[in-house]
Structures
1.
Amino acid sequence: MKRIAFHDREKEMKEIRAILDAEPSLITFVYGPINSGKTTMISHLIEELSDEYAPFYVNLRGRFITDYEDFLNVLFEIDEDGGVDNVTEYAKSILKDLGAVSGIPIPINLFEQIFEKKDKSKDMFKYIERFFVEISKKRTPVLIIDELQVIGDLKVDDLLIYKLFNFFIRLTKELHLAHVFAISSDSLFIEDVHSEAMLEDRCRYLPVDDFDRETTTAFLEEYGLSDEEKELAWHHCGGKPICLVELINAEEREKKVNGMLTLRTGEIETRLKLVKELGDEMMIGSRCCDVSYEKLASTLKMFLTRDEIGMNEVDEVSKRYLVKENILFVDPLTTMMKPQSRLNLLAVREVMKDV
Ligand SMILES: Nc1ncnc2c1ncn2[C@@H]1O[C@H](COP(=O)(O)OP(=O)(O)O)[C@@H](O)[C@H]1O
Ligand SMILES: [Mg+2]
């Protein structure tokens, strides 16, 4: 297995550096298709940050969060030895050796106090704000929440996500206290965010898409792929970093891409077959909607001759279903919709060619 070094992202990193150089004023939503390299880019950024900044990174991916208590456990990094119950003192002490932290450090006794409170969200935000106020005397806090959509639907009294957005607005636009980056691969979630009135003029969007052709070629060149192999990679994987890494590491590259394509074609075929034979339903808000095989098929057929389509060219149920199944990605900023990857586009074409 070859060690793969971080590649490129010059344009995105430049944009992020400009954001970090300025006073915090907007929430930044980092979005893009699955496996386009969002987490990798943010991890690289954290490593690169000078000690002017204090990054706090929380990844909700794969975390099973059903209530506040689960969320608190993920958001905070509990300090078992931190026997202080004064936030300011604690923040001061932690500033001395603030290494790579996952989550916001909190002494165990303060954590337990929040846990016992009825209105946990109020106390948790109050703690973070005080903690950041102290940290910000020496360094600028940078709060990064990856896979934020995980708590998108979590309801406790109100939707937690709204409380979080309010808090993020307070940290940025109102107090200019911390930079906030929220990352998501879930394009339906980003679409909701984009149409959310409370976030209007309070956030910006930073797309992180698959590599373009030039970047892909340069990436593959570093690992000695031949022109023929580069062509093969671009045709099948486009600029999807995860797919390119798999090819770099593969013994037989042609066999590998064909295998990947056959697998994805089979998956999409089965998905459609299931809808055709058994039907399917999906929730949109509180409504349960029928998924129509015919409408799905006519949506996917559009990709026989096109690489992307307008998101409003298809019915809402088909759009949401295909996005939820990770076949399509919708970009609410450009209002365009395309397969999650080049491999998905080829698989869709393979499935639809004789339908
Ligand atoms: N800039 C990059 N340079 C090298 N490899 C990358 C890069 N971005 C992503 N990758 C590879 O692709 C994989 C998936 O990327 P990841 O950051 O997890 O995607 P996302 O968070 O957008 O879903 C990574 O594990 C890594 O192997
Ligand atoms: Mg990720």
2.
Amino acid sequence: MTETEFDVVVIGGGAVGMACAYYLRCMDPACRVAVVERDPAYREASTPRASGGVRRLFARPENIALSNFGIPVFENFATLMAVDGEQPDIGFRRGGYLFIVPPAAVETLRRNFERQRAMGANVHFLTPAALGDKFPSMVVDDLGGAVHSPDDGWLDPHATLMALRRKAGALGASLVKGEAVGIEVAGGLVRRVRLADGAALAAGAVVNAAGAWAQRVCDMIGMKTPITPLRRFEHYFECEEPIEALPYLKDVNRLAFRPEGRGYSGGVPTLAEPRGFNLEADLDYFERVVWPALAHRFPQFERTRCKATLPGLYDQNDLDANPIIGPWSGHCENFYMAAGFSGHGLMHAPGTGRAIAELILRGRFETIDLTRLGWARIERGEPYAEEGIL
Ligand SMILES: Cc1cc2nc3c(=O)[nH]c(=O)nc-3n(C[C@H](O)[C@H](O)[C@H](O)COP(=O)(O)OP(=O)(O)OC[C@H]3O[C@@H](n4cnc5c(N)ncnc54)[C@H](O)[C@@H]3O)c2cc1C
């Protein structure tokens, strides 16, 4: 059996795990970091299957702050993630975000808008008439209002992950191919991560960045979380008739889509989906659920055609659809959670990586206080959920 010693072992090499490694190495080049990833081709991982949306349109200040931190990082990715002078292109497109709501949800939308604005986001409140002027193809009769954030947008998730991975490696993080199958705890602290091939990594701290598989890692130390795998589909579809340039659009019924190439990418995630590691594509879902929602909002989509359906897994936190970030307080202080993102993990990877690095290296949050996203609320069973559009 080979054993290697690390200050931090990160389990899971998706966007979140790689961002943790990146910030740990940036903040302390002496910190010995390993990222354990069982499949460096990322065949089932959520990151490459994501839609790539990045937005400041949230209700909770922590989520707005994570986006305020992360989006400028993505905008500067070419410089920040350059390796040997090679600058990655993550296709960041500042196409804007648009939340549209019926009259009953306008009050919540306006409250969130005020908070986003107070926190520095460039956001605009639109009446249905103003919305109709801006996007003449959109049916607005049944709407009460909208918020447009022109500085938000989308990026290429796979390119983003590859850039993070390459940079974390270049900064000196050890990228270990292997599956974590056990965690040894002694004296109330994690001590060692065991891999399927028999190797063991001694660890000063362990970060659980295993995404939809996070609960399986928690099982290794007897920790029960509400994080479950939730399947959702990303569809690529085209439209026969022209529509004006659209931002990333979302409504209260969870219709979410954006321009992609000659067409559009998006879907309608549902919480009614049974939880589990199901990566089968339901080829009727688009016709049944997504198409009616699209055609209702834009008559041009009456004649749309779905060309591809890609299933992926959310690491869904069934308590409140927000992540668990921070140590397993009161149980195992050097076991850190960075999972449960419920559909926001790519955009919040930089802020989470930074936060985890601060906790481990400095013992406290310095950039964004994420205390309310920590373990305590889970233990108390007190949800800290978003309000309005998810
Ligand atoms: C269809 C879809 C659309 C989405 N759209 C967006 C969006 O627009 N914007 C956004 O911000 N987010 C979006 N998300 C969510 C986003 O994809 C996730 O929140 C984010 O990618 C999570 O990153 P991660 O690194 O935690 O997980 P992952 O990318 O899943 O990485 C976890 C890794 O852990 C590895 N692993 C697991 N267990 C072990 C083990 N025991 N040992 C070793 N390795 C292990 C896995 O192989 C995997 O590679 C979307 C998700 C889906 C499915």
